[in-house]
Specification:
284 residues; 12 helices; Rossmann fold; 7-stranded mixed β-sheet; Helicase, Ruva Protein, domain 3; 18% strand; 2 domains; alpha/beta
Amino acid sequence: MPTLGNPTGTIYILKKYNFQFQKKYGQNFLIDSNILENIISAAQITKDDFVLEIGPGIGTMTQYLCENAREVIAVEIDKKLMPILEDTLSAYNNVAVINADILKLDINRIVDEKNGGRPIKVVANLPYYITTPIIMGLFEKHVPLESITIMVQKEVAERMQSKPGTKDYGALSLAVQYYSAPQVMFTVPAGCFMPRPNVDSAVIKLIYHSKPPVDVNDEGLMFELIRASFNQRRKTLVNSLSNATDLGLTKDKVLSALEKLQLAATVRGEALTLEQFARLSNML
């Protein structure tokens, strides 16, 4: 079995199976063993851990996870990768590969069956286009999580940890920070992948909050307000919220709430903290 995480082993496997990269799945395989070791270290994987890996590809990171974790479940959407994974992971008896779309999988059931419902660690190298739906899916389904350590496009990682008033701050920042404490661990140059992507990546760790950092009566409503506030960034909060037809809010109602929060009528969504959005949501 070839060791992956370097160009030689990766090219050998790709040639052996005549593998064609699928653009629709955003496939880029890591070819740097130092980066892989750093990810394992950042995720703090130990022999006590049950790990869910999303998008194992040809099994590069999976091999490292198997060496360090108690048990690994890897979920891969591309059917063509199944025989390759069977080959590259054949030496390990603590891994199961599921050919499925992670967005449609009942992860809570897997956690119940495999880890007795106890919190798990998630590790993933995610393509840009699917990053947000996957992360939000894990959070919104209330999967028992300890942490999520993921490699994403560098600017997405920066967006997740950005603060009010910055250009990167938005609905994603607020959602991630409501559910977790995000920390960018390190950046990964484009040259560490095959094929080489157009942008650099970053590894970010989201440490799950056992209890949200703000008190909110209706989580769903708060996130609707947040989304509406950032739909048209240049508009004032009053206009953004009163124009969002599904919210059914009048300008007067929004203005009255802002006044109670001691916020100016001209304030924009990007100026509000998570705490202020929670209080606004509770008032409305």
